Amino acid sequence: MVTRSETSTADQVIHLLQLLAADAPVAEIAAAEAPAEARDLALRITGAREVHQHREAGLAALLDTARELATESDPGSVLDAIVRRARRLVGTDLAYLTLYDPEAGDTFMRATDGSVSAVFQSVRLALGAGLGGLVASTHKPYWTADYWADERFRHTSDIDGAVGEEGIIAICGTPLIVEKHFVGVLFAANRSSRPFTREEVGLLGNLATLAAVTLVQTRALADAENALAALSDAHETVRHYADGVEKAAAAHDRFASLVLGGGGVDDITHALAELLGGWAVLVDENGSRHSAAGPAPEPDASGHDPVAALDALPGLGTGRLVERDGIYAVAVTAARERLGTIYVGGLILGDSDQRTVERAGVVTALVLLFERQAADARQSARNRLVSDLVSRRGSREERLSLARAVGFDPQKPFSLLVLRGEEPGGHRALLISASAATGESSLVGAHDGDVVALVPGTDADGLARAVAARIGKRTCVTVAGAGPVRDVDGIAEAHEEAHRTVGALIALGHRGKGAAATQLGFAGLIVGSDPDVDDYVRKLLGPVLDYDERRGTDLVGTLSAYFAAGGSPRHAAGTLHVHVNTVSQRLERITALLGESWQQPDQSLELQIALRLRALQAPA
């Protein structure tokens, strides 16, 4: 017969079994009424079950993590997923990951989840320093419930400062290792004291192993993709290069056929514009357009050429193509001498097109050299002719015939200019500039170190000024004019006057200017070959002389007395035997006739010389 006590015990055991079947928590099983032996057994079963469930959950979480990591192709995204999973699986306030830097020999923070400190997110850990440095140096996991009180770790100010700013107390770190190669450290940390179980450390270690393998695979995949991309780029580069070679060869054949067919630089410029599209301009060594093709920008109303203005581009003298504001330029050089510049625009040049422009520069240089040799031969003949004309070598008829043979008629009025430059070795350039500045109807040559130009026209002073101004835009040149000359026999005398005048201009500080001897005042009387004293006196005293002649006055005498008295009206009045007010009134009249500046030092000196010359001209 079953007693009540036995029935009660059986009921308690059944209730305990029901709790086990319902996965009741440990606390509820521990509180159940049952025999102590049965309750202890149930608690052991529950503990074992929770361990298995926890392991099962961890394995499931690792499987989910593996699936998530498998979908990531970017190494950065993989690292972010690792720390995010670690924080959730271990249940800590934050998780973070450091990577090993083999060059620096330390680890650096790469990814965080739950961190709030910028200092902590940028910290570096030396091997052996702190908990992370110890993990990195030993390749073994370490954990602590209270980092600050744990004496196993070597504390440093940098690491402790970063950990303190983040508020971390408990830390667990496990190494990331793949095939004995250390990759980094995975951490889980808490801002309060928290012990880590061996199961949690093992779970974090498994996650670290999975993360390390995934990270290495992702890096390998990224490297493979980069290698494939680089290979594809290399293939495309080779293809473009082959196309460029073919295109450059076609351009070379085009340029060669033009040159062999007798074409000039104009033909090369037009061919370049056709090959590339856009426009092309060749500027010569003097900055003037030699040839152009296509819709190139035109010079403005003042003559400013926007293309030639790029002549000072940095690197242009290297012979390689340079670019600014969509305009490409290459110097045309031969034997280290700049012969000109090719400009192209209105398009974007690829590598092969750039080589085509550079090749055009080389071919243009060869053609310009041929043209220069021909021009030098012509200029040499003109130099001999100008020297013969200035030196009067040969008969008058021979000189007339030689001048007319080159298209210049010495029996039509012309002016003679002497040009003197400053740049050493620039004689040839000055000859070219003078020919361009004076025009095709002029005869330009060299004689005794100077450039001599015979220019149609009677205004020697105006021509000298104009030529000096035009050439002076690129280089300093002093120009003296003489004339007009009306016959071949007058050339020698005009040259002598212009030669002395250019020296006088330089001596008087007018370097870089242009003038005729007649415009130099009293200095012109000195350097002129036929001084015109009457013209000089009339130019300075004409208004006063005319006034005296009309009115029967003697303002000229008053002016002489005033200068003789050292500019004192009172002393001049004594010399003239008139009242000082009379002298003052006459001086006011002279000012009205000559202008306010007649007493300025320069004009005053000219007036006194004119008065002295007039006195010397008077009959004794």
Measured distance between first and last alpha carbons: 185 Å
DSSP strand (E) fraction?
A: 15-25%
Count of helices? Answer: 20
Helix content: 40-55%
Morphology call: elongated
Structural classification = alpha+beta
As laid out across the biggest beta sheet, the strand order is 3-2-1-6-5-4
Average pLDDT for all residues:
78
Pfam families: GAF (PF01590), GGDEF_2 (PF17853), HTH_30 (PF13556)
Protein name: GAF domain-containing protein
Domain GAF: 74-225
Family: Belongs to the CdaR family.
General description of the model:
Belongs to the CdaR family. Residues 288-307 are annotated as: Disordered. This is GAF domain-containing protein. InterPro entries: CdaR-like_regulators (IPR051448), CdaR_GGDEF (IPR041522), GAF (IPR003018), GAF-like_dom_sf (IPR029016), PucR_C-HTH_dom (IPR025736), PucR_C-HTH_sf (IPR042070). With 620 residues, the protein is α+β, with helices and mostly antiparallel strands. It has helices at residues 4-21, 26-31, 36-70, 75-90, 118-121, 130-138, 157-166, 198-260, 265-276, 351-391, 396-405, 427-438, 460-471, 491-507, 522-527, 533-551, 555-564, 569-576, 580-594, 601-617, and strands at 94-101, 106-113, 124-126, 142-144, 170-178, 181-190, 279-284, 289-293, 322-324, 327-334, 337-345, 414-421, 443-447, 450-456, 477-485, 514-516. Helix 4 packs antiparallel against helix 8.
